[in-house]
Write a structure and sequence with these properties.
Elements lengths: L1 E4 L17 E11 L5 H11 L3 E6 L5 E8 H11 L7 E9 L9 E4 L1
Parallel strand pairs: 3-6
Antiparallel strand pairs: 1-5, 2-4, 2-5, 3-4
Length: 112
């Protein structure tokens, strides 16, 4: 997985420039103070506004994981947002990878 340190804007680099507007899937993991700050709910709301499908869940290690599908430019914008997260979050690191052949998602779910 590629990684970017939070709050340094390293996610917003040339590697995250869309190559087109085709449909893509990305898996991301966000570490730092990202649980207990409504990260998942904010991500779901933002995903719905951007017409991004997928899911988001808390992990046992204190991080948040998400799978996002949609137009490449919109998914990459979501990854950039994840670097900062909602108010109260303190993102330390964002890792992401493009996922091939992931089953299409119907909406955007918060997984408990």
């Amino acid at each position: 997985m590629k990684a970017a340190e939070g709050r340094t804007n390293q996610v917003n680099d040339k590697k995250l420039v869309p190559s087109g507007n085709g449909r893509v899937s990305y898996r991301i993991v966000i570490t730092g103070k990202v649980q207990g700050v409504s990260f998942r709910d904010f991500m779901r709301q933002r995903a719905m506004r951007h017409q991004v499908k997928g899911w988001v869940k808390n992990r046992r290690d204190g991080s948040v994981e998400a799978l996002m599908q949609g137009r490449e430019d919109r998914v990459l914008e979501m990854i950039r947002w994840a670097e900062f997260g909602p108010p109260g979050a303190s993102v330390r690191r964002v890792t992401y990878e493009r996922v091939e052949r992931y089953p299409p998602q119907a909406g955007f779910a918060v997984i408990s």
